[in-house]
Fold:
Amino acid sequence: MIYLPDLPDIMKVAAQTLTDPIFEQLKINVTVLRLDKIHAIISGNKWFKLKYYLKRASDLQKKGVVTFGGAFSNHLIATAYACKQSGLSSIGVIRGEEPAVYSPTLQDAGSYGMKLLFQSRQAYKDRHLILELQQSHPDYLLVEEGGRGHLGVKGAEEILHLVPSHHYTHILCAIGTGTMISGIINSALVTQQIIGIPVIKMANSHCEAVEFINAHTTAVNFSIQNDFHFGGYAKKNNTLIQFMNDFYHQHAIPTDFVYTGKLFYGAMKLVEKNFFVAGSNILIIHSGGLQGNRSLPEGLLHFNS
Ligand SMILES: *Cc1c(COP(=O)(O)O)cnc(C)c1O
Structure:
């Protein structure tokens, strides 16, 4: 039986309208879809991306799921918890050598029963590892890092069901692997503009996320705003941290420094640059991930996540 968070949890997800004098001045509306509120542990987009993998594992009568991630991975912790609730075993292959002290994410994943296997960064990058794991764990379903893949996209196609989504002219979200935005693009109207903000620095001509999006969608009504990655994955600076604190004080919305901090920073910069014409109705998807802030020094953020 696949575990689904209780309906009341889902209903708690709010579409929160933001107020800011600049929105009034420009005659635009900005609403945030608070996927961070779905569930305390399987937060944000990860639940949507995992759903059909868990169903597949169960349909194929697999014993569990083997998947991949870094020491602060939102995907690992969500997978560990969802598998536990669904009666599946889980194995997490962790990027990097085994640390002397486990990160809170790894501690939690372990406490939900996930078996942790550490791999050097070199071995982790090697596609050979996936083949080896498939051979050594035939009774496990292999789920790519971040839930990347077709079934992840299928789940992400359900995100917009939570709001009257036809109402919006623009939908903004963060891009990691490109799985979530592919689902958003597939389920949006062709008249809507989908805008992705990558959190990874990518060379324009050869970018895995863009290739992924092109392979999993047919629509052309999306664009990528590449200026808000802050130097790369999980990179940050004082400007970003200050923005996250200010944003929290103004709107009471906590963000994470890996994904949603950069997303909202980028969104606000686009607003300030007059990117959106008067009358625009903008939906920004808060994809969760707050637990990742536990890697930051205490006190840096003015909110608990
Ligand atoms: C994983 C994650 C993303 C990235 O989603 P992709 O489908 O990999 O593009 C965005 N936001 C948060 C909070 C995440 O945890």
User: Anything to note?
Assistant: The mean pLDDT is 93. Residues 44-46, 74-75, 146, 174-181, 256, 259-260, 287-289 surround pyridoxal-5'-phosphate (CB under 6 Å). Residues 154 and 183 are 6 Å apart (CA to CA). DSSP finds twelve helices and ten strands in the chain.
